[in-house]
Amino acid sequence: MGDRERERGSQQPRLVEATGLTRTYRLGAAAVPALRDVTLTIGRGEFVALQGPSGSGKTTLLNLLGLLDRPDGGTVRIEGRNGESLSENARSDLRRDRFGFVFQTFNLIPVLTAHENVAYPMAIAATPLHERRERAGELLREVGLGDKLGVRPDLLSGGQRQRVAIARALANRPAVVFADEPTANLDSRTAEEILELMRKINEESAVAFLFATHDPRVVARARRVILLHDGRIEKDETV
Amino acid sequence: MSAFSLAWRNLVRQKRRTILMGTVVAFGFAAFALAGGFIAQSFEGLKEGTIRTVGQLQAVDRRAVTRAEEKTLEFGLHEATRARAILASDPDVSAVLPRIDFVGLATTGGKSVPYLGIGVDPDPEATATSARELVVAGQYLSGDGGDGVVLGTGLASALQVKVGDAVTLMATTPDGSLNAVDALVQGLADVQIKELNDRYLACGVALASRLLQSPETVSKLVIFLKGRADESKAAGRLGRALNAAGYPVVIRHWRELAVFYEQVKLLYIGIFGFVGAVLVVIVILSAAIVMTMAVTERTREIGTLRALGTRPSGILKMFLAEGVALAAAGCAAGLVLALLVRAVLNASGIILPPPPGATHGMPINVQFYPLAYAAGLVAMVVTMLVASYFPARRASRVSIVEALAHV
């Protein structure tokens, strides 16, 4: 990277910037704080693990950063745009165009084939049909499922489903992929393969990955680990 | 991946539920199509029957519109032959029938029975109306009718006469004197309205004029038009022609005269409208339950779609598309069902109970009315849209995080 490029990069707004995030859930009459005054920044191309015990606020933080939920206090800025001031449609469009999501339970659409699942985010972005077809096929080949294009999720193994989910997350060339416990439902060998795949994608395409995880294998591969405890960042270190 | 393609796959996924709901829609559609066809056929039949009795238009004295006659032929049309010729010369007119309405007593010597008489020009009357078809014994009048009369079977029974017997007709003339003529029972008619059947008497205009001592005077001129002639335009033109010739007449439309037709029509619309409304409510409730179940079962999927960037309106559209797809599939099945049921009903020979005022039932005959089928399709699509809207709106507003955590 040359000096000029570096200069231009430094002038670009941060990819994800959270300031003073708080989120409290109601459990009957009781208020349960899930996040307390969390401030953090995710840069382009980072490979970050959010670690912490159950109930520490990992998923809550991931949901807030991914614009799936709104905080009770604080702000989330995506490439300089304040997520809280956006309409529901604008937040949907931002998720569609700049984010990818990988879930613990894969969350593929059961009535769609692997190819159609990957093409779906492009369809809602009104990408031309031929381009959608081409890119969905290309992504599935990239994740090693070139021979499963027309197969429905119920006929795929857990690992294959998660590969489809990863391909789907990359469909609209996102800036960041949010992955909530992506290896939790996979056997050890498959989990390793999936992590290797995501790491490879991160290195080759500079897509940032943010994991909420308990899995030490994920933490071991992360270049930055954020430790959450009782809704607060306890540690944020670059490995 | 269009909304309809996704909707269709989701419907196929829930086969049993889709078949159940599709069946409800199919029955709803078939009910609309068949009932609509039946009603339209009934209205058409009723209209034709009414026109065959009262004509499409009638030329009557202006005073007869607002006042009832106190004496026979008080508001009669004089110089009837000339007036009839004026009307018959219009290019849209196919037949002009003179009619003389009168009342009196018929007697065989031993017994006297009141009658409602109608003087007609027999041959054109038999051609343009169903008068001849009503005759069940003897013959209908012909030529100028001579001394012949056709009695309702009820009247004949009351008088204890049969075809070939003589009767004496008595009536009051326009100047108030009593007159009587001898007549011969030429035929017996089964008039389908019982009260009329007990009083019906038809004779030639010549005999009626002789009895009433009013030559060249009729109560009205009944006008039949050719093919699809415009009734309103013809009425205006004929009225002007008669007025210009010195006749103080107005031309009345058959709808003004057939109060019975309008009453029966309103009754049918009321009954079928109520049944239709009940049907729509049943379909709406069933569909709303099915859609609510679909939304609940697919809550996590909705959360996923929303997370991937589908706008709330996209979710709304997806479920509405399911409603429309279900309506379309149900209507397609309903079309087959309706055609089948129609064929079976029409072949069954079932005789329907007589309509109000009639003495005879008629065989069921459900016609194919494309408009009724189109109305069924529109009704089912709208019904399914209404039924799907609220569950779909709930789906579109669901919290993404809660939806993703839904088990």
**Number of beta strands of chain B:** 12
% residues in beta strands of chain B: 15-25%
State the order of secondary-structure elements of chain A, H for helix, E for strand. HEEEHEEHEHHHEHEHEE
Please, what is the oligomeric state? heterodimer
Query: How would you describe the shape of chain B?
Result: elongated
Helix amount of chain B: 55-70%
Query: What pair of chains forms the biggest interface?
Result: A-B, 29 and 24 residues
Return residue spans of chain A where pLDDT drops below 50 for at least 5 consecutive residues: 1-10
Distance between the termini of chain A: 22 Å
**Distance between the ends of chain B:** 27 Å
Order of helices and strands of chain B: HHEHHEEHEEHEEHEHEHEHHHHEEHH
The residue-averaged pLDDT of chain B reads 89
Give the biggest sheet of chain A.
6 strands, mixed
| Poorly predicted residue ranges of chain B | none
Task: Please tally the helical runs of chain B, counting DSSP H or I stretches of 4 or more residues.
Answer: 15
Order of strands in the sheet with most strands of chain A: 6-7-8-3-9-10
Radius of gyration of chain B: 31 Å
Strand coverage percent of chain A: 25-35%
Q: Rg of chain A to the nearest angstrom?
A: 18 Å
DSSP helical segment count of chain A = 8
Dominant shape of chain A: globular
In brief:
Chain A has 239 residues and is of the alpha/beta class.
Question: Can you walk through the features of this model?
Answer:
- The complex is a heterodimer of chains A (239) and B (407).
- By secondary structure, chain A is an alpha/beta fold.
- Helix content of chain A is 37%, strand content 28%.
- Chain A contains eight helices and ten strands.
- Chain A has a six-stranded mixed beta sheet with strand order 6-7-8-3-9-10, with helices on both faces. Chain A has a four-stranded antiparallel beta sheet with strand order 2-1-4-5, with helices on one face.
- Residues 1-10 of chain A have low confidence and may be disordered.
- With 407 residues, chain B is α+β, with helices and mostly antiparallel strands.
- Chain B is 55% helix and 19% strand.
- Chain B has helices at residues 3-13, 15-54, 63-66, 80-88, 122-128, 153-159, 194-197, 205-212, 231-244, 254-257, 259-297, 299-307, 312-348, 370-396, 400-404; strands at residues 57-61, 93-107, 112-120, 135-138, 148-152, 166-172, 178-189, 200-204, 220-225, 249-253, 351-352, 362-363.
- In chain B, the strands form two sheets. Chain B has a six-stranded mixed barrel with strand order 2-3-8-5-7-6, surrounded by four helices.
- The longest helix of chain B is centred in the N-terminal third of the chain and has 40 residues, at 15-54.
- In chain B, 41% of the residues are buried.
- Classes of the chains: A alpha/beta (239), B alpha+beta (407).
- Chains A and B meet through helix 3 and helix 4 of A and helix 1, helix 12, helix 13 and helix 15 of B.
